[in-house]
């Protein structure tokens, strides 16, 4: 069991080395390793499947464009989550500039249609949690997703968000309290 962590680090280093050499197999390995986590993060952060799809694609395009320039010691997971987060933030900035688009996005988000499969797959508690999570600010939602869903260590989260390590602890505590408040209001 103690060998799992060093093996994962070695695997990641091999992927980064391959990316730096322009090997297509390394990109495929990175995609297999991080695809579900990055997509899940963006899906919950964006709140809309269509937007998450676009941001997801942009995240991987950015890796393809920057792969040769990655530093040898790049923490690929943290790098990808940072890019995904920045893609979302950039999208939000552009959306906020155009008030008509903002109103349209808000209407779409409130009128989001679930498929019968979505309704059947999610229990009432899961739907309540997803709704409470979606109602949080982007800052609260992203830190809870990185820590709670992705299980990232606080030092990696600090790197992704560009904040101090001790600030991560404070933001997580506040975000959890707000989430609990939202969940309590729904019951």
Keywords, separated by commas or semicolons:
about 190 residues, mainly alpha, Rna Polymerase Sigma Factor, Chain: A, Arc Repressor Mutant, subunit A
Characterize the structure shown:
This protein has 187 residues and is mostly helical. The protein folds into two domains: 1-113, RNA polymerase sigma factor, region 2, helix turn helix motif (Rna Polymerase Sigma Factor, Chain: A); 115-187, Arc Repressor Mutant, subunit A (Orthogonal Bundle), CATH 1.10.10. The chain contains ten helices and no strands. Helix 2 packs antiparallel against helix 3 (49-66), helix 7 (124-135) packs across helix 10 (165-186) and helix 8 crosses helix 10 (165-186).
CATH class of the largest domain: Mainly Alpha
Strand content: under 5%
**Total separate domains:** 2
- Chain-averaged pLDDT: 81
Order of helices and strands: HHHHHHHHHH
CATH architecture of the largest domain: Orthogonal Bundle
- Sheet bearing the most strands, described? none
Please give the radius of gyration in angstroms. Answer: 18 Å
Tell me the span between the first and last alpha carbons. 41 Å
Number of β-strand runs: 0
Helix content: over 70%
- Low-confidence segments: 97-108
């Amino acid at each position: 069991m103690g060998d799992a962590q060093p093996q994962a680090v070695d695997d990641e280093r091999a992927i980064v080395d391959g990316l730096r050499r322009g090997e297509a197999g390394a990109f495929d390995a990175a995609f297999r390793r991080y695809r579900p986590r990055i997509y899940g993060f963006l899906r919950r952060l964006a709140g809309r499947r269509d937007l998450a799809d676009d941001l997801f694609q942009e995240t991987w395009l950015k890796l393809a464009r920057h792969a040769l320039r990655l530093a040898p010691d790049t923490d690929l997971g943290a790098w990808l989550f940072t890019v995904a987060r920045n893609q979302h933030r950039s999208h939000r900035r552009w959306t906020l500039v155009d008030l008509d688009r903002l109103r349209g996005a808000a209407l779409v988000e409130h009128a989001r249609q679930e498929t019968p499969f979505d309704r059947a797959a999610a229990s009432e508690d899961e739907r309540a949690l997803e709704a409470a999570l979606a109602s949080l600010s982007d800052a609260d939602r992203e830190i809870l997703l990185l820590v709670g869903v992705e299980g990232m260590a606080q030092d990696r989260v600090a790197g992704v968000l560009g904040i101090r390590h001790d600030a991560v602890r404070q933001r997580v505590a506040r975000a959890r309290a707000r989430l609990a408040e939202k969940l309590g209001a729904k019951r």
